[in-house]
């Protein structure tokens, strides 16, 4: 994993300091935090999203030539806090009132309402567009963008395991065990996604397509890491995971059908076919056992669970628009 090319002042400063192993002095930290605070559209700003991704990566595999000590470097954490603050403000503005708690409504029912909220779901459906219209290159482009997360699928959600207890913990572990292939490397979902990428002749090296990632792509990835790294957001992390499990079976079926329409076989479709089955099983486990168990033990976190799910829908809506918008424009001009 190599340090990416910067996309603006904030990401350039972070990349330069990590590359040169140069400490971030307090004046630089405050300057970069000020720049982050001034960003108008934090969810759509490539510089802010790339800078946040760079700040998060030392918690994962790290960057080639960058020392492990950067993971907990005070200066980098200070800049990251400023980026996260603006990111959260952007999320709250995007979500609005879609995650409001209603008295007496079970959390699994409320989660379904959030996932179907008309304002959050007003944009194009990526899976429906791909199923009906996508050509081979468009599907390949979607795989490049998705690889930013899918090649390490499940890792951010696993951070919730030591932060929750009881039935919610047991349900989360059951879900995550499936994500990691039940102990079989070749069945890990990240490995299955790489298999689909190879069918399209794509590079399966983690981070290979960071240079092509749209701000929306980076935001979908940064969102899970933001929730995962902060114990206070453990409820949002569970809500995010529940949203994924509750709302991916049908889209994965559409993606698999699109691949078959394009003439691809099991090597390409297996990742999506696996999710059709697995996520159908996980839906109730995630919504009722995991989120229901968590809220039952800690009712004050109910709103956080809904915020996590609503944030997922918001960033996924931007992701879909970033892909489908140009495709529709090209189709109209043809």
Automatic annotation (TrEMBL):
Query: Highest taxon of the source?
Result: Bacteria
Q: Which Gene3D superfamilies match?
A: Heme oxygenase-like
Q: What is this protein called?
A: Iron-containing redox enzyme family protein
């Amino acid at each position: 994993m190599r340090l990416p090319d910067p996309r603006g002042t904030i990401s350039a400063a972070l990349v330069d300091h990590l590359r040169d192993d140069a400490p971030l002095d307090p004046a630089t930290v405050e300057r970069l935090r000020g720049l982050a605070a001034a960003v108008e559209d934090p969810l759509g700003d490539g510089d802010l999203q790339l800078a946040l991704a760079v700040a998060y990566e030392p918690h994962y595999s790290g960057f080639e030539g960058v020392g492990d000590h950067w993971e907990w470097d005070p200066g980098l954490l200070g800049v990251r806090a400023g980026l996260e603050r603006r990111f959260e403000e952007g999320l709250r503005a995007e979500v609005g009132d879609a995650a409001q708690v209603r008295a007496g409504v079970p959390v699994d029912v409320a989660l379904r309402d959030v996932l179907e909220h008309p304002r959050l779901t007003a944009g194009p459906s990526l899976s429906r567009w791909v199923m009906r219209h996508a050509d081979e290159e468009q599907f390949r482009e979607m795989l490049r963008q998705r690889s930013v997360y899918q090649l390490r699928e499940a890792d951010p959600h696993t951070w919730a395991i030591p932060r929750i207890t009881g039935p919610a913990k047991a349900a989360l572990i059951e879900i995550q065990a499936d994500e990691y292939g039940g102990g079989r490397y070749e069945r890990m979902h990240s490995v299955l996604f790489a298999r689909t990428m190879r069918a399209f002749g794509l590079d399966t090296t983690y981070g290979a397509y960071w240079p092509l990632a749209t701000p929306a792509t980076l935001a979908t990835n940064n969102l899970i890491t933001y929730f995962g790294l902060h114990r206070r957001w453990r409820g949002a992390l569970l809500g995010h995971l529940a949203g994924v499990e509750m709302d991916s079976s049908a889209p994965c079926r559409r993606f698999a059908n699109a691949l078959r329409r394009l003439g691809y076989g099991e090597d390409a479709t297996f990742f999506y076919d696996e999710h059709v089955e697995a996520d159908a099983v996980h839906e109730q486990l995630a919504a009722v056992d995991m989120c229901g168990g968590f809220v039952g033990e800690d009712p004050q976190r109910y709103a956080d669970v809904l915020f996590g799910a609503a944030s997922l829908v918001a960033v996924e809506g931007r992701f879909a628009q970033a892909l489908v918008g140009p495709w529709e424009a090209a189709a109209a001009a043809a």
